[in-house]
């Protein structure tokens, strides 16, 4: 629900999902840095940061009803899909949970982009 207006309430599910995804990616990033196979996670770690940043920007775009919010969320969905794919390659709990959250966010972003 909007903080000072209800103008962006129609985006609320996507805003919430993007905020959750960004947090999950940062948490997974930090956890991956402490894994013994960090070298093998190079692409995953890089994608986690891109995904987290994109999700944060999506929250901002939707919160201000930006004119490119739909296009932005479509790209966000693509990045979330890629992040989910990268995380899914690693069997530890934090990567598996992050992959699930990224998939959910990608779905919400696609729904928002098709509004």
From TrEMBL:
It holds the Pfam family Csp. This is Uncharacterized protein. It comes from the Bacteria. InterPro entries: Csp_YhjQ (IPR005560), YHJQ-like (IPR044543). It comes from Desulfonispora thiosulfatigenes DSM 11270.
């Amino acid at each position: 629900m909007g903080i000072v207006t209800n103008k962006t309430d129609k985006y609320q599910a996507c805003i919430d999902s993007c905020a959750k995804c960004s947090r999950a990616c940062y948490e997974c990033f930090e956890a991956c840095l402490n894994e013994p196979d960090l070298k093998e996670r190079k692409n995953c770690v890089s994608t986690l940061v891109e995904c987290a940043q994109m999700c944060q920007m999506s929250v901002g775009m939707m919160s201000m009803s930006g004119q490119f919010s739909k296009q932005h969320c479509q790209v966000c969905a693509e990045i979330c899909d890629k992040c989910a794919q990268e995380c899914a390659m690693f069997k530890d709990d934090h990567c598996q949970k992050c992959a699930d959250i990224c998939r959910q966010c990608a779905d919400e972003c696609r729904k928002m982009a098709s509004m």
